[in-house]
Design goal:
The chain is an all-alpha fold. It folds into 2 domains: about 90 residues, no CATH class; about 70 residues, Orthogonal Bundle (Arc Repressor Mutant, subunit A), CATH 1.10.10.10. Helix 1 packs antiparallel against helix 2 and helix 1 crosses helix 3. The N and C termini lie far apart (about 70 Å). This is RNA polymerase sigma factor. It comes from Streptococcus ovuberis.
Length: about 170
């Protein structure tokens, strides 16, 4: 019976940690992942925590694990930006495609990235969402907004789509 009570305490503490992390700005999926990692770390640990210190320890470990995860993701995003999103990705063969390239570089980075990954790298919406770690609907919205902005600039400059075909 004591084990059941202990498990219930762990479940309550895990829910508290999830809510705390979400309230602190962590995504729901990350909050659940971090909390699960905390529980695994605690259950695999070869130490015994007194009940009065268990809650504080779990919170401290959760925050540290999230910070580590955040740093790893930030480093990953920097590598992606450095290696995937180089300006040399788009080959320009003629003056018109050079204009298209200039327009693409003027776009906000979030639109430029999804357009480059979708049209020039050939990634699907699902793959782009995984690479950039955003939802598929966000990828679709950014694609639509980027295309809309390009279309507006093309019209303002008096060009047609046929002029820009590579």
């Amino acid at each position: 019976m004591k084990l059941d009570r202990y498990e219930m305490e762990l479940v309550v503490l895990a829910e508290e940690i999830v809510h705390y992390l979400i309230k602190s700005g962590v995504s729901q999926s990350d909050a659940y992942d971090v909390t699960q990692d905390v529980l695994v770390k605690m259950l695999e640990g070869k130490f015994a925590l007194p009940r009065e210190k268990m809650r504080a320890w779990m919170y401290r470990v959760a925050v540290r694990l999230y910070i580590d995860r955040y740093r790893r993701e930030k480093t990953y995003q920097e590598l992606l930006q450095r290696d995937f999103f180089k300006e040399e990705l788009i080959v320009t063969d003629n003056q018109d495609s050079s204009e298209l390239y200039d327009m693409l570089t003027e776009l906000p980075a979030k639109y430029r990235w999804v357009l480059e990954l979708y049209y020039f790298q050939g990634f699907s919406v699902k793959e782009i969402s995984r690479i950039l770690q955003i939802s598929q609907s966000k990828v679709k919205i950014d694609l639509m907004r980027g295309r809309k902005q390009l279309k507006q600039w093309i019209t303002e400059r008096g060009l047609t789509y046929e002029d820009l075909l590579i």
